[in-house]
Structures are given as structure tokens and as C-alpha cells.
């Protein structure tokens, strides 16, 4: 089968299509004829050789496609349209997936849309509800509102809670889009001090939950923005990983809960439970048109390198998809 | 009545006994004839004028004594021996306490022992179970094992879980004492690298829960010591508050939950619920002799300044008590 592999750890030019052996499903797994895969930042980190948790030379942690074979104890009929997280190997014509992580694609969604769902919606769901414990009448601050996880988080917070949603983005276009998805307050971080705006929007109480993809460069302002007893979930370090001069006393005085997380390296069991919870509470809302898969652009398999470059330029609103056939 | 008040923000010499007006219980409160109060680090911070949450010129956040008057809706009979947290005003002959925070003193305990219980045992209970979510077969690392909260945490972890208990202290005497309370592994932080010892004692898995009173100076080693998905509860900054060069990526990769907390500034409702939970699960173990109130030394009211100095010298094992009559 054809697959996109990494020549040597490095830039996007290291990605190329190669013929490799087709995988076979083991016990509890299904083999999927992959129609679409989506690009994630974790793929870029893996491509650069900076993370140790993906041994698979084929990148890609989420796919949508059709089940073509089911291993022992994997009770999904051949022909079922599914989407979900894979343990690497997603940028390929065929990939194996633990059956308990496969979600049936809602009828009204295309494969391009389906591949845009698992990673960002599961991450946003985990961050808002499992880690952030967002409850009613609270306020959530979602950074990078135009990103894949950002657009998913805004929609989930809107549909599943009555929380006040504050989001940051770097352009009016992105902020308008965030409003259309349900954000109450949009802050242009290039022109406004987001900490001041968050305090204004919350009568100085601050945000109860922060989704932080940015890390170091936002540290001080996030600390100002967070409410007493706030949950600060760190899921990315786009603004750098190294913070100087952290005042622990401020973390204590505000009783901050800082929770670092990454979805990809989590256990199979965790992903199974998260998928199950999400499929129960959120998946039906796609069929009803209340949640939308947001596709920025679709690339053919041969142009996966360009798809990576597009993400690295931070120009996308929503997900970048690669078609595998 | 006589009370210990702070002249001006500053050192222990600012404490002196003065005649002040006796408080009266409001709705939901009881008036207590205070027999004993205990010294806490939060008192020292208040004495220095460094914290803004205590307006009461009389220090002291925990007392033991006898109920002498009950306000409206405070259903505790006059004469009952009680102990618990007060909102300041503890270093005095009389103090008011919300009735829903008063715990009946177990018969076999003296007032000296009773005053040694509320703050440290409630803090340790909150840290281990409400914030640390310590569960069976896990490992807990308790720093400052000889301190008030340390000795309480070791005992609670021993009596209420089967967790492996690792503790650090600065002398053989303190470590021996920690072992006698139930610690499995003792590390002399002056002679050993505690992170290495924790990894040795856990087959490199690390500690699932860390009780951190130290802050900045232990940051790097705590990060090395903590397990994946570990809960790191920050309840003090004896080793400094300012950390340089924090690597957020390590917090994410280990999926650390860092939780800052302080008990004193929490709401009345929080203290009520915590007291209730503790009284149900832990208090009966004092009557049975399975939990011990640990008293280091008892000072007369006039020597409260010396009691503060004794704490500031870090020489105590267990609590420092002041007799109010």
C-alpha cells in the first residue's frame, strides 16, 4: 500500500510517499481503508524526531475510512464508515485501529469532515470537562480560538454548557468566526491585553477554566486572567516552553490547578473511555447539525509536506486534511 | 479579656498581651473559652503584615476550649469541649467559631493535644484526599515529615490507605519519628538526593502524590520525583517562591497536576465541608489511639513571641501550643 513516511527527522521536505507493507488487524482491532487523515501538531513534532512516543515511521494519529477487516473480538461490520484515533500509521491507504476507539461516522458527514473530528474534539472535550471540570455559570478562556482544538472547544462549551466563552485570536476574521461558533467575547491578542479584557468581561473575577496552547509567552497574563480555584489546562507550548520567574505564591494564593496534558501518549484504555464518553454526549450533536467539523483545506496525499507547511504557518481555521486515495 | 495582639507588622517581639473587648457570638457561632491555641506559619505571615486575608489584630486560626455561649442556630450545648478553625482571634481568652466547624474533642485528649489537631490534620486530609486523590496502591512523597502537617499526613496516609509513604526530613531523629508514625521510606535531604531515592523506592515510577511545603528550591527534584499523572500539591514555599527556568513541556509530558492551595483564606462553606468529612472519616481514630496529636512544646500566653521564634527556627517536631489560661 502507499503511505507517507519520514525520510529522516527534519522539515516538511522529509515527507514522501512510499510503498510499504499493509498492516493486519490483531485481536480487538479493525483494518480501515483510510479515506482521509488529518494533520496534527504532534505529527510535526514526531516528524522532527522530538518525541519518543511514536515508533511508527508512518505519521498520523487520526483517520476516517471504511472497515475492511475485523480482528478477533472486534465487532464492527465490514463496510462501516468509522473515524477515530490510531496509534500512528494514519497517513496511509490502510491503518489499524482498536475497535473500541472507532466511532461510526454520522450519515450527513463526508470523510473529509469526519477526519476533522477525533483529535480536536476529543482533546477539547477532555480539556473542558475531564480536566477543566467546566460547570454551569462559569467562564472559560479559550486561546487560539481559530485553531482546530479552539474551534472544537468553543462549540462544545456552547452546546454542552451555559458557560461564558472568551476567546483570543490574532485576526478579526478569526474572531468573527469564533463568534459564529458561539464565543461571547473575542479578544485580538495582537491589539489588546487579553488579561485586562478577561478581567473586564468577568467583573474582575477571572476565568474559571483556561485552555492554554501557548505556554511561556502567555504565562503572566494567564496567571492574571485566572480566577481563584481556576483550572488551567496546558495542552501546548506554541509560545515557548521555558518560563522564567514563576511566583509559586501566586499559584497558591489563587489556588490554581495547573494541569499539563497530551492526548497522543495516553493509554489505549484512556482513549477508549474518552471516546466512549464523547460518543455518548457530543457525537449525536453532529447529526443534528449543532456541532460542525471544521475543515480548512484538503490536500492530496502527495502534497502532505505542503499540508504540514500550511499548519506551521498558523494560517488555518480548523483542520487540515489529507486524502489518502 | 486578655489577648495576644500585634503591635506593628514585624518580628516576634511585636507580640504582646493586651486587654481587649470580649467578642460575642453571632448567628451560627459559638463563643469559646479558649484553653489552648496552636501556632501556624500563616500566623507568622500575618504578623509580618504580608498577607491581606486576616483583618483581625488578634492572630490565631485554631483553638481548643469550652463552649460558654451559643448564638442563634448554633446548637452546641454550653460546656462542650470543642476544637476547630477560627477566622482569626485565636490567641485570646475567648474566641468565636462558626458552630459547623467545631469538632467535639475526643474524651481521651487534653486541650493541649486538641489544639494540635485542626489546622494540620485538616490541611493534610485536604491535601492527600481532596486535592491529591491518593488512592490505594499508590505512592505519596511527604516533604518536611517532621513538621505539623507532615506528621499528620504520614499518620492519615498510614491509617486511611495502604499507600507507600516516602518522607524527607533533615535529621535522623526526625526520620526515626516519621518511621514510628508509619512512613515506609525516610530520606535525609541533607545527605541524599531525594529524587534519586524516590525513583529507587518506586522502580523508577515516581510518586503519585507529592505534598510540597518547600516550593522553589525543590522544584527540579520534585519534577523528577513525580510519576506520570502525578498530583503535586503545593501548600508552602519554605524554600522560596520564585522558580527560574520552568520547563512546561515536562509538566505536559508527565501530565502533572500542580495544585496550589492555602487553607486559611478558604470560604466558611469549604471549611465546614472539610471539617465534616474529616470528622466522619478520621476523628474516630483519635479515640481509638490510631491517630495521635503531636505536641512539640507548650508555652504560656505571655511567651507567645518565643513560641513564634521556636517555629521560625524549624526545630519542632509536631505542633507548638500556647495556653490561654
Automatic annotation (TrEMBL), chains A, B:
Keyword NADP in record: yes
Domain Enoyl reductase (ER) positions: 10-322
Protein name: NAD(P)H-quinone oxidoreductase
Pfam families: ADH_N, ADH_zinc_N
PANTHER family in alphabetical order: QUINONE OXIDOREDUCTASE PIG3, QUINONE OXIDOREDUCTASE PIG3-RELATED
Keyword presence, Electron transport: no
Lineage, highest ranks first: Bacteria, Bacillati, Bacillota, Bacilli, Bacillales
InterPro entries: ADH-like_C, ADH-like_N, ER, GroES-like_sf, NAD(P)-bd_dom_sf, Quinone_OxRdtase_PIG3
Coiled-coil features, chain-numbered ranges: none
Annotated keywords: NADP, Oxidoreductase
Amino acid at each position: 500500500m502507499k503511505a507517507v513516511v519520514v525520510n529522516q527527522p527534519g522539515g516538511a521536505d522529509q515527507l514522501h510517499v512510499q510503498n510499504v507493507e499493509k498492516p493486519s488487524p490483531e485481536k480487538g482491532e479493525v483494518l480501515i481503508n483510510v479515506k482521509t487523515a488529518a494533520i496534527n501538531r504532534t505529527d510535526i513534532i514526531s516528524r522532527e524526531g522530538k518525541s519518543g512516543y511514536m515508533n511508527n515511521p508512518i505519521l498520523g494519529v487520526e483517520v476516517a475510512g471504511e472497515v475492511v477487516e475485523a480482528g478477533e473480538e472486534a465487532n464492527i461490520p465490514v463496510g462501516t464508515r468509522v473515524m477515530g484515533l490510531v496509534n500512528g500509521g494514519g497517513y496511509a491507504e490502510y491503518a489499524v485501529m482498536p475497535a473500541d476507539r472507532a466511532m461510526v461516522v454520522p450519515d450527513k458527514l463526508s470523510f473529509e469532515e469526519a477526519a476533522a473530528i477525533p483529535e480536536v474534539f476529543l482533546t477539547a472535550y477532555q480539556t473542558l470537562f475531564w480536566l477543566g471540570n467546566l460547570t454551569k455559570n462559569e467562564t472559560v478562556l479559550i486561546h487560539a480560538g481559530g485553531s482546530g482544538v479552539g474551534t472544537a472547544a468553543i462549540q462544545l462549551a456552547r452546546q454542552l454548557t451555559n458557560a461564558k466563552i472568551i476567546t483570543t485570536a490574532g485576526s478579526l476574521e478569526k474572531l468573527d468566526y469564533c463568534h459564529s461558533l458561539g464565543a461571547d467575547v473575542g479578544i485580538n491578542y495582537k491589539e489588546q491585553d487579553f488579561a485586562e479584557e478577561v478581567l473586564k468581561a468577568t467583573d474582575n473575577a477571572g476565568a474559571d477554566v483556561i485552555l492554554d496552547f501557548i505556554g511561556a509567552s502567555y504565562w503572566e497574563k494567564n496567571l492574571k486572567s485566572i480566577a481563584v480555584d481556576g483550572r488551567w489546562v496546558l495542552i501546548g507550548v506554541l509560545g515557548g516552553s521555558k518560563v522564567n520567574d514563576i511566583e509559586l505564591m501566586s499559584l497558591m494564593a489563587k489556588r490554581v490547578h495547573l494541569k499539563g496534558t497530551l492526548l497522543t501518549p495516553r493509554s489505549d484504555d484512556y482513549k477508549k473511555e474518552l471516546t466512549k464518553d464523547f460518543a455518548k454526549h457530543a457525537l449525536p450533536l453532529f447529526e443534528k447539525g449543532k456541532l460542525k467539523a471544521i475543515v480548512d483545506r484538503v490536500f492530496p496525499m502527495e502534497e502532505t509536506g505542503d499540508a504540514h507547511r500550511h499548519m506551521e504557518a498558523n494560517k488555518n481555521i480548523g483542520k487540515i486534511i489529507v486524502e489518502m486515495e
